[in-house]
Amino acid sequence: MKIQTKTTLLFTALTATVFFILNITVYFFLNESAHNDFNKRVELRAKISAKYRFEHDAESTESFRELQRQYMEKLPEEKAFILEVAKGSKVSKTPLAPELPATYLEKIINADGATVFYKKGYRHYAGLLYKENTGDDHIVIKSAVNVYGREMMQHLLIIKIVTFICAVLLIFTVGKYFSRRTFQPFRDITAKVNQISQGNLHLRLQEQKGSDEIATLIRTFNEMLDRLETSFEAQNNFISNASHELRTPLTAIVGEADYALQRERTPEHYQQSLENITSQAEKLQHLTKGLLSLAQTGFDGKKQKHEAVRLDQLIFDVKDSVDAIFPDSSIKINMHALPHDNASMNVMGNYDLLKIAIGNIVMNACKYSNNQTVEVDMIIEAELAKIVVKDNGIGIPEKDIKQVYIPFFRASNVKDYEGYGIGMPLSNNIIRLHRGSIDIQSKVNIGTQVTVNLPICSEENG
C-alpha cells in the first residue's frame, strides 16, 4: 500500500473517530437535557395535582386550574396515581400500579416531600409525598410519555448517522486530494531520479525555496548527485591516468627488449639495456605498489587491525625511515609541553598505515625543499592530536592546493621533481580512515605547512 493511501486512510480514521465521539457526546447531552426538561414538566403537574386534591383554598385551586388551562398543554398519555399511606408508615394502603416497582414507592416515602423521578422507556414518572396535618399521608404520582423528545431524538439520531457517513466520505475525498497534492513532489522526484543514470549524472532535481522537508530532501539528493558525479569523474580520471602511467614504463621495457633482440650486440650494450629495463621495472613496481596501497585504503577501515598507537614513537620511526631513503635530509622533531599522561599521546589506528601517511608527508617536505630543515611538531589538545610538518621548500600554488588529493595530480611547479601524484591522496585516505583530517597552508617559494589532525584514543572514540 502506498504511503499516500495510508496517509489518507489514517487521516480519515482519526478525523472520523473524533467526529464520532463528538456526535455521541452531543447526542448524550441533548438526550439528558430533553429527559430533564420533561421531568420538570411532569413534576409541575404532580405538584399541581396535589394542590387540587388536598388543599381546600377555593381561590388558589381555581387559580391553578386557570393557569393549567391557559399555559399548560396536556402531556401525551398523561396519568395520575394517588396512594394513601398511613401516618408514620412506609406501606401504602392503596394497591400500587403494576407498572411501578415497589422500590420506587419506598424512595418517595423516604424522600420526605422531595420529588422522586422514575423512567421506563419514554414514560416519565414524578412522585412526591404529601403530608397531611391530620389523617394519613398521600403519595401523588404523575406520569406521561415524552413523545416529542422521543421523536426529536430519533430524528437527531438519523441526522447524526447521515451526517457522519457524509462527513467520512467528504473527509476521505478531501484527505485523498490533499495527500495527493502533498506527495506530488515525491512522485516528481521519483520520475526525475528514474531519468538519472551513469550517462547523465549532470541532471539535477529542481530545487525549491524554503526549509521544509521536501526542499531539504531535494537539496540533499542534489548534493549526493554532486558527490557521485565527482566520484565517477575521479574514477574515470584515475583509470585514464593509471593506464597512462603504467603504459609509459611498460613501453620503455618493451622498447629496450626489442632493441636488444634485434641483432647481436656487445656485452656493454646488453648491460645498458638491462639497466634501462631494471630502472623502468623499478618505477613500474613503485607505481603499482602505490596504486595497490591507494586502492586498499578505500576500504571502511574495519578489515585493518586497529590498536593504540603512540604518536611520539610513530614520529621517530617515520624519521628513521625517511633518513634511510633521503640520507641528506634534515628533520627536526619538536615535542614541547607534552602531557604527563602517556595515554594522552595515543591514537586508535593501524600503525603501518599511519606510518605510510605521515611518512609520505615528511618525504614530500624533504624532497620539495631540497633537503632543507623540515620541522615536525606534535601538539596534544583536549581530544585532538596535531602533527605539524613545516618546510621551506618550493610551496604549492594556491590554485593547486585543493587538487593535491586527486590521484596522479601534480602541482604545476614540480616538473623538475620525480613523482607520481599518489603520496598525498594515499595519506589523505589513510587519515580519513582514522577519522582525522589534513590541512595544508602553502606559499610559493616560501614553504608549506601540513597539519594532520587525529582524535585522541579514549573510551568514547577508541
List the helices and strands and how they pair.
Blueprint (H helix, E strand, L loop, with lengths): L2 H52 L3 H14 L7 E7 L16 H9 L5 E5 L2 E8 L6 E9 L1 H49 L17 H49 L5 H30 L10 E4 H15 L4 E5 L11 E4 L1 H18 L4 E8 L3 E8 L6 H4 L21 H11 L3 E7 L3 E9 L7
Parallel strand pairs: 6-8
Antiparallel strand pairs: 1-4, 2-3, 3-4, 5-7, 8-9, 9-11, 10-11
Explained architecture:
The chain has ten helices and eleven strands. The chain has 462 residues and is of the alpha+beta class. The protein has three domains: 3-153, Beta-Lactamase; 213-296, Signal transduction histidine kinase, dimerisation/phosphotransfer (DHp) domain (Helix Hairpins, Orthogonal Bundle); 307-455, Heat Shock Protein 90, CATH 3.30.565. It starts with a helix and ends in a 7-residue tail after the last strand. Strand 8 (373-380) and strand 9 form a beta hairpin. It is rod-shaped and about 155 Å long. 54% of the residues lie in helices and 16% in strands.
